[in-house]
Protein: ABC transporter domain-containing protein
Organism: Planotetraspora mira
Amino acid sequence: MIEVDRLGRTFKVRGTVTHAVQDLSFGIEAGEFVGCLGPNGAGKSTTIKMLTGILAPTSGRLRVAGLDPSRRRTALAREIGVVFGQRTTLWWDLPLKDSFELVRLLYKVDRGVFRRRLDELCALLDIGDFLTTPVRQLSLGQRMQGDITAALLHDPPILILDEPTIGLDVVSKAGVRDFLRRLNAENGTTILLTTHDLGDIERLCRRVMLIDHGRLAFDGTVAGLRAIVPGEDSIEEVVTHLYLSSRRSPRTPPPRPAQDPPSVTA
Ligand SMILES: Nc1ncnc2c1ncn2[C@@H]1O[C@H](COP(=O)(O)OP(=O)(O)OP(=O)(O)O)[C@@H](O)[C@H]1O
């Protein structure tokens, strides 16, 4: 579903070069639920932007649903749903339902199919009460439910989310997580999300990737991630340890785990 091979993205701003993503390689199969962690500035959002075609890579190769994202954005849009936790894709001044209608027109979704899909998503995400509310008047949690609905109206096989639970209270977070879990388990939707919330990783993801300084520092199970620090059971402590060692010696990759996760690159 997703193939990333030696991907790189460099930014040059006023003579300063930033290697936001470097030599990044991984693959994601259909039906996987993958979480992506990494300290601030690690390159997660840049990776997501390349996967969704917003940014073109400066090196390497990637395919999403068999397509080169930055060259085939229109075709790709049918295959993926995208949610940015920090930015809405909805129309600020329009009622939520009008935003959905615009999405329907953009994606050329048949009216009957759209109706059924919207009814399903309304029930699952519990958004029926604020369909007529302008987006600017929605709470963050309601807006996120709206953004997730909009991303799924065309029923894409792949959902990519950049920090979908940021700023949500515990109940809203639980609702979003429950929905994503069901979407993956019952619909078989392939999901990739970035997050700083380790609860998202522990509760949702069978596989976790850790990006550090633009490189893949870990790719394996949550148990494999825990095993990096022998005797430490708390994933939060393990991740804190990794981020701190990364700050102390920015070019030093994190230590290998005590027991083998499915794959580790460092
Ligand atoms: N458009 C841009 N122009 C210049 N530099 C950029 C641009 N976008 C990202 N960067 C730089 O690339 C690096 C990676 O940024 P990115 O936003 O991908 O990190 P991130 O892992 O998503 O961080 P966070 O968790 O804080 O959101 C950072 O050093 C950032 O300053």
Observations:
- The chain has nine helices and nine strands.
- The beta strands are 2-13, 16-28, 33-37, 59-64, 80-84, 158-162, 190-194, 207-212, 215-220.
